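Structure Section — protein described below
Tokens — whole-number codes for backbone shape
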Amino acid sequence: MKRTPNTSHAFKWSWLRHAVQVAVLLLFAAPLLLAGWGLFGVSVGGDDPVPTPADLPFFGSLSSSSIGGLSLLDPFGVLQVVAASKTFELDWLLFALPIVVFYGLVRARAFCGWVCPTNLLLELVDALRRKLGIKVSEAPVPRHAKLWTALAVLALSAVASVPVFEAFSPIGAVNKGILFGSVAGLWTLGAVVAAELFWGHRVWCRSLCPLGGFYEAIGRAGLVNVKYDRTACIHCDACRKACLADPSILDPVLTERDAVVRAGDCMACGSCVDACPTHALSMGLGKDVKPTETSKPSEKVPPVLSS
């Protein structure tokens, strides 16, 4: 028997996720403020010496940070440096490995959903577009294109001998712009916002971001997954409309071929869980065993979203 829709959720994953996104921004800003420095590259105070933020227990950005003397590096940034310099240092691997292990255990694209400041900004842009009633394409670029974008960035880094994405990353434009007043990637950020407003829904995060492509490549191994209760599903399509990653990643569960969202694209953002009126979707640990091939598919396939 199908459950009666219930739109009253006592808890929203989106609330927690937005709180974490803001907390990450504040975490990186805190050392500068505690040391008496300003944000956006603005100096504070007179000629008196002020402490160096790098001397504090935590300091850095999403590209490179230090926690209690332990250096952490963006693994995709490390790959770019290796390609650009044509050299390899063991320290680079050791400093990037904790990040790879953490997101690999959780879910690699959890970075995109829970940490990336560009995603937070684009969710606000998404809300603005809906409020203005602007219609855009739902999928102008295939979602796996970002895998090829990531490979292209590495190839260009090798050819140009510079870490290419670091020079135009909209993620750095937000993160490093707030912290240090960096303008690198600012034009890219403007183009991404314009594309979100007038071209395609979530087109950067879903299809073009090379960092998202890198995390998609290692994303299937995560322990945090969206699980599906087929007895509760009423096929209302609310989850597909809410999905930040790409609605197609929900197809294997909605057509009852699987019981958990396995796609490396999944951000574990919880938007689909929040949107489900019957609690057919939930966040959980581990991956259920795939149903056998003899499992009977649902007679009702979710409709394709229109733009």
About this structure: The first helix runs from residue 13 to 34.
